[in-house]
Amino acid sequence: MTLVVILTLYPFLYILAASFSDQLFIQQGKVGIIPKGFNLDAYKLVFEFPMIGRSYWNTVVYTVTGTLVSVLLTVCAAYPLSRKSMLGRKFFTGVILLPMIFAGGIVPTFLIVNAMGMRNTIWAIIIPGAVSSFYVFIQRTFFEAIPQELEEAARIDGCSHMQILLRMILPLSLPSLVTIGLFYAVGQWNSFFPAMLYLSDKSMHPIQLLLRDIVIMNQTDSVLTGAAADERAMIGESVKFATIMVATVPILLVYPFIQKFFVQGAMVGSIKG
Amino acid sequence: MNARDGTPRPVPVNTAARGARNRKALTRLGKRLMNEYHLYLIFLPVLIYYLIFRYMPIIGSVVLSFIDFNMFKGIADSPWVGLKHFLQFFDSIYFWRLLRNTLMINLLNLVFVFPMPILFALLMNEVRSKILKRSVQTISYLPHFVSTVIMASMAVTFLSPSIGFVNNLLASFGGERIAFLQKPEYFWGIYTVLDIWKTMGWSAILYFAALTGINGELYEAAMVDGANRWKQMLNITLPGILPTIIIMLLLKIGHMLDIGYEVILLLYNPSTYETADVINTYVYRKGVIEASYSFSSAVGLFQSVIGLILIVAANRLARKYADSSMW
């Protein structure tokens, strides 16, 4: 048990410690989970490099816009499918289900996105992966859990489906909308693959892609465009760690608050999905 | 008015009244249709979305696989070549390598990654302190929220020959520093460990749920019969979560050829292609980077078809032996 905890936490603590440490100590491998040569230089640099700030902002924009679009479309899919009165409900459920088992693959999707002229636009990041069939089914299950009597009452009062959805169902299912929204948001915040496929323009890259460039590919030049020569020399290990921290902290901060929702959502989805 | 004294209402016989009633019924039907119409209106954007981004790629991958697609000629004018791309793939030296890597990584996953959450959940089940239980669980979910890039970054840092923790440890015991990520023989192991780290806690959620569903009286009865903790686990807990385990196992088998290729894409390099290259990453390299659209579509289609067969077969098995199925 303790082993699990240690193995899970150690990488986080190490990176946290390393991001506050002096480069020299990191290179000598002397940093454990307590920072050595404590300083904030790395963070100062992270926020000063124009590329890091830029891609961080991109990630925020992609996440907010993407989540809104995703939640909207998911509701549009889940609500009709949750109504027993919808003709052809089974068929449409199948339409949503099939791509979960049989997907077209990277290449045809890539060609379609290109053909639609989405390349190097925010839409290439947001649209192709906007709806997840899995979350549609989770949301549908939530909608189905709302008592039918409420809807019948509203019907008698002359509400249309649109009105019922907007005035009654949505406010009632706020917790589930938040859950689904956060699922999407975490996914979007963490994603790098669509950006890698569709964005050749570096000024549009999200933070994850930048991280890949500097940590994994070791291409520091993309971060340093516009930085002075003496700054170039300074980018090093601690800056990498600081960037990792900056990219991860928002999610780790949100997560304890929403954990309950997450767990519930995941369970509902997997049991009934 | 008539209801109170019990006299029956006069039955409307004149046609005008009947017409009015019919009109009323018609408008009611119309209203209902209007309501339904709203449902379809709401659903329409999603339908269009699915047609373009989910179904067109499926059709596209089938069509592209059988022609020699040329960007400038378009799909209609590109020549039909039948099975050429498939045969070319089966004949290439990559075929067996990709198949072996894909299957081996999945097999390792099945043997090492799959049982971990079950063990973890069983272990947690024995913990009596609620606070401890909850906090350990919370910590175990953390890696699930870390992006693949960050997980890969961590792997790169920890395995780095110069500053990596693992190599420092090796060196302090007098061992030699190893460039783990440059050596094909370590790739499967690294991938498996990362997979366990990222998924264990989160996958355990399902088993936790299954565990809470077990009737507590069974344990009391077992205790009366003198069964110890170990016996209880073996005879009550394990059978209790067995259906969940089987379903998860079948789901996994259904996705045998699908691998979390994003991690591989981040961690592999030409010197480790030997063991790290899987069908998905190959499709990416061939299709997106080298622009062999038709060939890579055929490879992708091959994977999807095998995957579909596996899913259908797994579902059959589930129905037959586990009394539950995915659909």
TrEMBL record, chain B:
<feature type="domain" description="ABC transmembrane type-1">
    <location>
        <begin position="99"/>
        <end position="314"/>
    </location>
</feature>
<protein>
    <submittedName>
        <fullName>Binding-protein-dependent transport systems inner membrane component</fullName>
    </submittedName>
</protein>
<feature type="transmembrane region" description="Helical">
    <location>
        <begin position="103"/>
        <end position="124"/>
    </location>
</feature>
<keyword id="KW-1133">Transmembrane helix</keyword>
<keyword id="KW-0812">Transmembrane</keyword>
<keyword id="KW-0813">Transport</keyword>
<feature type="transmembrane region" description="Helical">
    <location>
        <begin position="186"/>
        <end position="212"/>
    </location>
</feature>
<keyword id="KW-0472">Membrane</keyword>
<feature type="transmembrane region" description="Helical">
    <location>
        <begin position="293"/>
        <end position="318"/>
    </location>
</feature>
<feature type="transmembrane region" description="Helical">
    <location>
        <begin position="233"/>
        <end position="251"/>
    </location>
</feature>
<keyword id="KW-1003">Cell membrane</keyword>
<dbReference type="GO" id="GO:0005886">
    <property type="term" value="C:plasma membrane"/>
</dbReference>
<feature type="transmembrane region" description="Helical">
    <location>
        <begin position="145"/>
        <end position="166"/>
    </location>
</feature>
<dbReference type="InterPro" id="IPR050809">
    <property type="entry name" value="UgpAE/MalFG_permease"/>
</dbReference>
<dbReference type="GO" id="GO:0055085">
    <property type="term" value="P:transmembrane transport"/>
</dbReference>
<feature type="transmembrane region" description="Helical">
    <location>
        <begin position="37"/>
        <end position="56"/>
    </location>
</feature>
<dbReference type="InterPro" id="IPR000515">
    <property type="entry name" value="MetI-like"/>
</dbReference>
<dbReference type="Pfam" id="PF00528">
    <property type="entry name" value="BPD_transp_1"/>
</dbReference>
<dbReference type="InterPro" id="IPR035906">
    <property type="entry name" value="MetI-like_sf"/>
</dbReference>
<comment type="similarity">
    <text>Belongs to the binding-protein-dependent transport system permease family.</text>
</comment>
